[in-house]
Design goal:
Elements (H helix, E strand, L loop, with lengths): L1 E3 L11 E3 L8 E10 L7 E10 L3 E3 L3 E7 L5 E8 L7 E6 L5 E9 L3 E8 L5 E11 L6 E11 L21
Parallel strand pairs: 6-12
Antiparallel strand pairs: 1-2, 3-4, 5-7, 7-10, 8-11, 9-10, 11-12
Length: 174
């Protein structure tokens, strides 16, 4: 979002106000805006805003993707960390993929750091989507929703052509 003086006289000054929506961001972010001028030497000027967004709760991967071959399993870990100076509590509220995944919440550092380990269950080829919703004790961020996508690939039953795409020729006897 930008607010600016529409016209600035030659040699004059103007103001440009840039606003950045930080929802969904954490840590360092960089945003830029282009300013178009009638100055032949600088037709476009790029303004850059760099900011550090402090969030009450850091989540390493709010969106998780699991790819696995059928009849196999895979595990992925999401870190959840308190960024405020008070202990964090996590309480599972809703999990929509109980037939596809299991999860465990492990407290790594009391009230500060947690690891949520998702483990896929072996199954037939399919894709799925779902979520794990957690309640927190932080009024600044009362809940966390981890979105999960999974794809179980069909495992290769037979040996196909070689990597080059050619089929080896049979050997002949003389």
């Amino acid at each position: 979002m930008a607010e600016f003086n529409k016209a600035i006289p030659p040699g004059g000054e103007g103001k440009i106000k840039l606003s950045v929506q930080t929802k969904g961001y954490s840590r360092t972010i960089t945003k830029s805006a282009r300013v178009y001028t009638n100055d032949p030497a600088k037709k476009i000027v790029r303004l850059t805003v760099k900011a550090f967004v402090k969030v009450p709760i850091y989540v390493s991967s709010p969106k998780l993707t699991l790819h696995v071959k059928e009849d196999q399993s895979i595990a992925k870990v999401v870190e959840v960390r308190a960024e405020l100076d008070k202990p964090l509590e996590l309480t599972p509220v809703q999990f929509s993929l109980a037939d596809k995944l299991t999860y465990t919440i492990k407290e790594i550092e009391r009230g500060r750091r947690f690891e949520i380990c998702f483990t896929s269950m072996p199954g037939p080829p399919q894709s799925y989507r779902g979520f794990l919703k957690l309640k927190t004790n932080y009024p600044e961020k009362p809940d966390i929703t981890l979105r999960i996508r999974g794809l179980i690939h069909k495992k290769n039953m037979s040996k196909g052509p070689s990597r080059s795409g050619t089929i080896p020729s049979p050997t002949h006897r003389r």
